[in-house]
């Protein structure tokens, strides 16, 4: 799923403010307009920290092209700013004031205005201003928009009162949520997507006189007041001012109960009146209005009683409050009934519009009007990567989600939301959460129990902060490590992926769903169904992606054996939801060609639901609907009829719901199909216990990031480390040794945690609480000197540790060929070369996929695949210093060159740098005896297999591995690699005797 755009910046007006004094004073008492941009060349094209205008975009082709153009029809001066654009993701331009200059005070003005040359294309143009903070890139973003529905030049006025706090992205997480206007840093303008266009803009200036409504506001303590029948709602009305100053003018609030679905006199006692807050009233003063409801003893759906507020002298509440009499006495509310009967009763009562709402999921960033939750009867919200509340704390998450949940109380049947997040390696959107190794590292651990523990920690931290639904685990079988999502996979072998699906029990609990209502469990999602890990390199048509979201070309048997295999196990484990893949599936011989998975009814309805017996619900991927062929109604019909039950339509929920209703009315989607989808969704909501407990149980919030949780992550980090080479037993290190540490990833928690950490793409630097590998080594008691670029003198050290690898990325942004490669950076190569030439050295590769190091392997004494170990660098240090043994095994084949890709266990031609399953062990004695011992181990392993003694069988194969790896450590060849990799696959499938046979073949070839 994609993250929304970053729009921010800072530094322009300073040189322009004196120009305001040169203008004639207006006839009224309005202050003179203050120029912001005249576009005559007074402001350069430049970015932070200098003052200037700069462009930005989601991909390299998204930023618009800008120039200053002399125009005879310029509204002001001689020149205007013109530009062209062709934006697929997001793009626009920003004017920032210089970070080294004071911020500007706009508080004396009514708003900001500009001249825009209309193209009459009907497109909405978002306009953003930057308030408070250190500079334009660390300010608070406030947004409004205008519509290009005219031709020629027009002056657009944007009153500050119309700007709203941007909820989908804040560069520093937000500051105080108050548009103060006294510390302003510039503006941004976002251009339309999906069309080629041009624009012209001129004369941006501040205008008008500010009124009190910009500085004073009236709020209520809640937008919805739900009471049981006969109860009294107490609506507290508060007046507040910017800076907490007393009111300079009186504020009046007229109120009256009117409209709604409740009947005055029968369901409630009507009220009306006026509240007055005189001039001089302190900010924060409040009054209370009471609304008394009446009992009539009949079973009923919920009834609404809007309380209309008319405010004079201040800004009115963003949402008018309403009192709601709770639904009561209806069968679906009876906890004594089976879930199936409760669902059937509720579905029978819903209108088509309410059913369509349940099938709709919106992004929280789209909720500029939270009343839409009730207005469209939305079934779900999500936080995409980086879509977080301010501040980004567990308490703020719970408050935010509970606020959204409160809105559902104003619907007829008060169906709660289910709130989803991508917690793919811990609760990775939440600052301070415990971040596990990515799945590729868990796959390296070969420890199903550890996977379950990691899932349990993730579930507990997610549920305690509000969300009840996790878009994890990814059950993709990665077949080409050029894929930017390969680290989301447990590995290249479907048997390995299946073995790690214990994570589902960690997330959800028991397979029958009976644990879902616990305060430490969440609804899990198997993704991406099916074949996302098998796309062909170069087949993607999404932007500049090279492989992600491309085409998976397989025979029917390959589909079954490789990509479908993990899903039956997930269904058997009770997985609650499944997410289809963005990719297309092209099955040889079926005559269909490539078909997007979101439209493959043969796979979703036919295989997943009918053959496998999946009884949860199918959730689409982020905006995946838009990738289907045809017009929007055809896209909706194709996907829903294919079996997608809930549509993730982050910012187009109104369009989706109306289209879905139209398609049902037209007969292109059956009501039976709608009822099936809604029944599946409601079943999970009932099992989650949301009808009885819709709000967050925060009692376990103190456990988020706790020592116990971090201990699990530390163990996972240790077990994920794969020792590929260890000449002369360089590892483990001794505390008595003087260790020289270098490399880009030794002391960077952002690089260490990778993508999907705090934001969608992740980022380098100190982005989350945790321990870097360097700090872990120091914590372990190591005698460590650190020089990131190895520029410090290298003499006098016993051993060097160079930590190199990748910087963060996610999804197709990280595809090889899309700005990424599998080569180490020049700086990392230089650090390796310098350190390894000066002393014995160990190289740790922190990455989401193998890195090509064959040209330097001869100079490296020890090589470790560290993957992306998460926040607990102490776990890496544990194996480096011998507190724990290295036990990790390669979850994917480590290639010699990119030309070998794709390369996987079982290939007919197989000659990698290191084979699948390879992983040297420390602190463990290797059995003696060679072939004779291997023969004895093979006999014992076969007997263990026949006796279904899995633990004994795995231990016997493990002994055989030690023998082979000891002999083959420095004599790898295709003849060794292929049977060795085969043996690891056989081990995972329980064929212990055959595994030892293949290991014996590898031993003989070494």
How would you sum up this structure, described in words?
- With 1006 residues, the protein is of the alpha/beta class.
- It is 26% helix and 21% strand.
- The protein is built from 23 helices and 37 strands.
- The strands form 8 sheets. Strands 1, 3, 4, 6, 9 and 12 form a 6-stranded antiparallel sheet that branches. A 6-stranded antiparallel sheet has the order 2-5-11-7-8-10, with no helix packed on it.
- The model is unreliable at 1-27 (pLDDT under 50).
Which terms would index this structure?
globular, six-stranded antiparallel sheet, 26% helix, alpha/beta, 1006 residues
Write a short abstract of this structure.
The protein has 1006 residues and is an alpha/beta fold.
Sheet/helix structural class: alpha/beta
State the helical fraction.
25-40%
Radius of gyration: 31 Å
Shape: globular
Separation, N- and C-terminal Cα atoms:
45 Å
For the sheet with most strands, the description reads:
6 strands, antiparallel
The low-confidence runs, each spanning 5 or more residues with pLDDT under 50, are 1-27
**Strand-residue proportion:** 15-25%
**Mean pLDDT reading:** 94
Topology, number of strands: 37
Count up the helices.
23
Protein name: beta-glucosidase
EC number: 3.2.1.21
Enzyme class: hydrolase
Keywords: Calcium, Glycosidase, Hydrolase, Repeat, Signal
What does the secondary structure layout of this molecule look like, with pairings?
Layout: H1 17-21, E1 34-37, E2 52-57, E3 65-70, E4 79-86, E5 91-96, E6 111-119, E7 123-131, E8 140-148, E9 151-159, E10 164-165, E11 184-190, E12 196-207, E13 216-220, E14 224-227, E15 232-241, E16 251-257, E17 272-277, E18 286-292, E19 303-312, E20 322-325, H2 339-349, H3 352-358, E21 360-363, H4 372-375, E22 380-383, H5 394-407, E23 418-421, H6 439-445, H7 448-464, E24 469-470, H8 494-499, H9 503-508, E25 525-529, E26 551-554, H10 556-572, E27 577-580, E28 584-587, E29 595-596, H11 601-611, E30 617-618, H12 632-642, E31 647-648, H13 653-665, H14 671-687, H15 707-720, E32 722-726, E33 738-742, H16 749-753, H17 773-779, E34 783-786, E35 799-805, H18 826-838, E36 840-846, E37 862-867, H19 873-880, H20 930-946, H21 950-968, H22 974-988, H23 992-1005
Parallel strand pairs: 14-20, 21-22, 21-31, 22-23, 23-24, 25-27, 26-28, 27-30, 33-34, 33-35, 35-36, 36-37
Antiparallel strand pairs: 1-12, 2-5, 3-4, 4-12, 5-11, 6-9, 6-12, 7-8, 7-11, 8-10, 13-15, 15-18, 16-17, 16-19, 19-20, 28-29, 32-37
Helix pairs in contact: 2-14, 3-13, 3-14, 6-15, 7-15, 11-12, 12-13, 15-19, 17-19, 20-21, 20-23, 21-23, 22-23
EC number: 3.2.1.21
Catalytic activity: Hydrolysis of terminal, non-reducing beta-D-glucosyl residues with release of beta-D-glucose
InterPro entries: CalX-like_sf (IPR038081), Calx_beta (IPR003644), CBM11 (IPR005087), Cellulose_Degrad_GH3 (IPR051915), Galactose-bd-like_sf (IPR008979), GH (IPR017853), Glyco_hydro_3_AS (IPR019800), Glyco_hydro_3_C (IPR002772)
